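User: Sequence recovery, please. Input:
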């Protein structure tokens, strides 16, 4: 059996470009390559350096990066190099190291579909989470422009407070602030970030969405999308999704993907109405407490 070394590197805000570049290289054209996209890292860069460094890891062998992981509490999201698929020894080693990072308690691991790392975890006693799957939706017929008659503006410093207000209203418990928006938009992922804010006819902020590019000609990502509770039911969410998709298309995205829990039927309906189609239902692997 060949000896193999796997190098784990925790990366902070300044070094996160290493993770972003690897994920961009692994992103397919028509959909995301799994549960981790460069935009997921970009969105996480709203946090302070210590929080980023604690969550973000790049895993490499002698040939270079083979995986990027982002942990959120007991959940590990992973993106992997295509060559992992053909290397069972490497997959087994990654599975063992991922489990080690998650500690001894109940944990979840979200992996690309069909990953041999998942097969290795199953052999070690992990199993698909029986609870709600996540729905992956993709739009590959991107609009050439924002919807007519809708007041959609690009998000910059002048409207950052309004964009943050929508996020905090749309997601209970949100910790998003103008300072964290500034941290995200000044990060190494800033060039990948495209945001839109839709206003009501009276000028009130109604919906906001953030889109993320990958490598040129690859699939983009929406993360996050939110509509202010006081302005739901008027098409503002659909409008902001279409506006950001149009901007992603203009910047070279081949398609746009979004993920949402299957139980969030309102979100699924919103994305379908904006031209997205469901392409997969994904269940993370779960390990009970050891």
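Assistant: Recovered sequence (290 residues):
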């Amino acid at each position: 059996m060949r000896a193999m070394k796997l190098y784990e590197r925790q990366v902070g805000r300044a070094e996160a470009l290493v993770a972003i570049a690897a994920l961009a290289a692994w992103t397919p054209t028509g959909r995301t390559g799994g549960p981790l996209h460069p935009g997921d890292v970009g969105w996480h860069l709203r946090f302070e350096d210590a929080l980023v460094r604690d969550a973000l890891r790049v895993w490499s062998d002698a040939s270079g990066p083979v995986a990027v992981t982002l942990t959120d509490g007991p959940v590990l999201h992973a993106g992997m190099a295509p060559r992992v698929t053909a290397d069972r020894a490497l997959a087994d080693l990654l599975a063992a190291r991922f489990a080690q990072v998650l500690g001894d308690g109940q944990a979840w691991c979200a992996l690309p579909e069909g990953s041999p790392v998942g097969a290795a975890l199953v052999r070690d006693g992990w199993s698909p989470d029986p609870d709600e799957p996540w729905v992956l939706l993709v739009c590959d017929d991107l609009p050439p422009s924002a919807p007519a008659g809708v007041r959609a503006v690009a998000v910059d410093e002048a409207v950052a407070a309004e964009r943050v207000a929508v996020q905090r209203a749309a997601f209970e418990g949100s910790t998003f602030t103008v300072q964290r928006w500034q941290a995200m938009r000044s990060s190494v992922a800033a060039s990948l970030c495209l945001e839109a804010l839709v206003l009501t006819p009276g000028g009130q902020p109604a919906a906001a969405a953030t889109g993320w590019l990958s490598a040129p000609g690859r699939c983009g990502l929406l993360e996050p999308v939110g509509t202010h509770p006081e302005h739901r039911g008027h098409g503002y969410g659909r409008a902001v999704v279409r506006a950001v998709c149009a901007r992603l298309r203009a910047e070279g995205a081949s398609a746009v993907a979004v993920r949402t829990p299957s139980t969030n039927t309102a979100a699924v309906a919103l994305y379908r109405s904006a031209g997205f189609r469901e392409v997969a239902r994904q269940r993370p692997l779960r390990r009970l407490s050891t």
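The domain at 7-130 is CATH 3.40.630 (Aminopeptidase).
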